[in-house]
Amino acid sequence: MSSHESIKQSLPDGEVYAGLILGKNGAPDHHLVLLDGDIDDVTWSAARAWAINRGGDLPSRRELSLLHANLKELFLRVWYWSAEQSETRSQLVWGQNFSSGIQTMYGRQFHGRARSVRRIAVSWAGAHHSEQ
User: pTM (2 decimals)?
Assistant: First the structure.
């Protein structure tokens, strides 16, 4: 059985396996799990606190792209907060529109919608890689 299949089977009710995120810049690969529930009409700070309080976090921009690709039907066709702030303007935060698929930035005080995710580290121990 593949690792993602074993993770899918072990998820608590309401959680949904979203896929694999490949690590970038030295970060490890991880499985992404969408937690049940959402919150609406909240600032970024309130959304982040809500997500962490649920045992997860807001998704990154890459994770939002994966959620849009794999689980779009589980989202309303509106805009959702990410965990990522602008690199040059810390008062701006990235988000994902689940209608158009576009990512854009909004001010932290904007009121938006949020979902929470959790990450499960990928263990490649014992994995066999073929060289071509």
Answer: 0.89
